[in-house]
Amino acid sequence: MFHPEEVIFAPTGRCNLACPHCRVSRGRGELPAGQAVAFLESCRDGGIERVGFSGGEPFLAPAFLSAVCKAAVDLGMLFDRLMTNGAWWKDERQLRSTLAGLRDAGFDGTFGLSHDAYHGRDPRTMAAFISAVFELWDRKDCVEILSVRSPDDARYMAGLRELAGLLGGTLEEDDGEPLAIVRADGPAGDAPGDRYEDGATLRIPILRSPRSAGADEGSWGSPRWFEDDFCAGPGNVFYVHPDGSVAACCGFANENEQLILGTMSDGYAVLCAAAAENAHVRACYETGLNAHRQGLETAGRRFPGKTADMCFFCDWLCRHPRG
Question: What is the C-alpha to C-alpha distance for residues 282 and 289, in angstroms, rounded to an integer?
Answer without folding.
Answer: 9
